[in-house]
UniProtKB/TrEMBL annotation:
Entry keywords, A to Z: ATP-binding, Membrane, Nucleotide-binding, Transmembrane, Transmembrane helix, Transport
Classification via InterPro entries: AAA+_ATPase, ABC_transporter-like_ATP-bd, ABC_transporter-like_CS, DrrA1/2-like_C, P-loop_NTPase
Localization, UniProt: Membrane
Protein name in the entry: Sulfate-transporting ATPase
Membrane topology: Multi-pass membrane protein
Organismal lineage: Archaea, Methanobacteriati, Methanobacteriota, Methanomada group, Methanobacteria
GO cellular component: membrane
Pfam families in the cross-refs: ABC_tran, DrrA1-3_C
Gene Ontology terms for molecular function: ATP binding; ATP hydrolysis activity
ABC transporter domain location: 7-235
Amino acid sequence: MVNEFIIEAKNLFKSFGDFVAVDNLNLKIKRGEVFGFLGPNGAGKTTSIKMMVGLLRPTGGEILIDGEDIAHADRLKIGICPQDIVLWESLTCKESLKFMGQMYEVPEDILKTRVKNLLEDLILTDKANTMVSNLSGGMKRRLNLAMALIHSPEIVVLDEPSEGLDPQSRRVLWNFIRSLRDNEGKTVILTTHLMDEADGLSDRIAIIDHGKLLRLDTPENLKKEFGEGDIVEIHLADSKMNQEVIFRLKTIENIDSITEVDGKINIKTLNAVGKLPEIMNKVQEMNNEIADLSLHPNTLEDVFIELTGTSLRE
């Protein structure tokens, strides 16, 4: 029977002298999901990931890869694309991938196909015979990712993969990450400071701070539960009724605030979509019509700031 969870961390603990970097972390990463791992600088996310992929020995706790203790697990199941680009400047793209594949002892016939496919998928075919030293920063980052995948690992760890990329390169990367999950069934662990990236790619997101897991859920559920709240903006056909309607709307439970701004009614609340029917019913009960209604959704950044605070970390 295939284990639903490809990585399990149980009471994971790591200290460096008196400093506790990871404090009894418990989480399970599902097979074939994009798992977002978020936290402020110094929160413990990099230390946690290093332990989960076998690069760092934990002070305490247990890590299972496919149900097996990491000490006995097959490390070839894991591919790591670090934030810092690590390439051989004097090799071409094709030579870099072939050399990396040979180090992983990928059979020659399989390696040839993988090199071709990865260059195509990451829009590097035209640069196959170009020396790495002549590539742009975005191309180098995509090649770095290709090298982490040359041995076809089941688990792919991407540490800040969009760092320094222009919008076009970022879109190429995002589509490729989705294809790793959707077409190849790979598990992707993604660390990023880009909230729209985490929101758009992750099936589930873990937010940690001070070495502790604060929340683990889908982006949608996190935005329903935390953050500044959605903004519903209502423009009544008869704006003279605004204050009377606001008085009536305040009877709805769990509304954070209702104010009049530039002749419109602004309602701030978590999970506004779920409250829209009740909001509209209250307006209609007063024989008023809604001329226009817009919804500005709560963002993952709002959630992140509420859970981890606003102070700058270096």
